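Mods, move this if it's the wrong board.
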Amino acid sequence: MPRILFVCHGNICRSTMAEFVLKDMVRKRGEADRYVIASAATSTEEIGNPVHPGTQRVLREHGIGGFEKKRARQLRPTDYDEYDLLIGMDDANVRNMKRMLGGDPDGKIRKLLDFIGEDRSIADPWYTGDFATTYEDVVVGCEGLLRELEA
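Not the wrong board. Structure tokens:
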């Protein structure tokens, strides 16, 4: 059973979006019980806060729910052992994850768009205001992740 943790700066936009997009994808395949999917933040700024309204809106526009009780939480050192993949949204997330987790001895830390063969970041809609483009990148990244997990 793959255990996947998505990580971004605040855990209210990108990582939460990826968590619920992937949960929706595996649910539609009838495989929800085969995965553990969660998300976390590298910072403490949003801990306990709900999903960003822009993320809520774009998820709802695509028929994705289930995020209503989600609250931001910070990445914990124990997450490294609890998850098979820890997926950051940008280079700063990956650097902070490695610092917070004491490195990446098992090669579990990746960026989401690595799964489609692209070395680029998913833009943070907190700054860009463009939740639609972030959503599109998250979807293709999650599709690539599923392809790799199924291979």
